[in-house]
Amino acid sequence: MIRVDQIWLSMRPLDMRAGTDTLLSRVVETFGEARPHQAYLFANRSTTRMKVLIHDGIGIWLAARRLQQGHFIWPKGESTATLNRQQFDALILGLPWERLGDGGIIRIV
After folding, report:
1. How many domains does the chain have?
2. Residue 54, domain extent
3. Euclidean distance between CA atoms 69 and 39, whole angstroms
4. pTM (2 decimals)?
5. What was the pLDDT predicted at 104?
6. Is residue 1 one of the residues assigned to a domain?
């Protein structure tokens, strides 16, 4: 498996036609740099599709996910956020990840 130490989320919508090089440029523009063992998440405007770019220290991985029903719970705005593993797991299932705190504890209703 690919080691991921940090997960970053961009709130700015992404054109899903973007490939690896375009997405890498967006990572550098948004986050300042692409660091090894970090994942960068982007969604389209309707939040039904997501792309994840991961720098594994040697090369770049690009993965895509599309929900057949519903949409990802994605914050609005132009900034960024960090997610822990439990929040990421909830996000990719379309669940309200922002409600999960450390250890999967729900802190916000």
Report:
1. 1
2. 6-104
3. 25
4. 0.87
5. 58
6. no
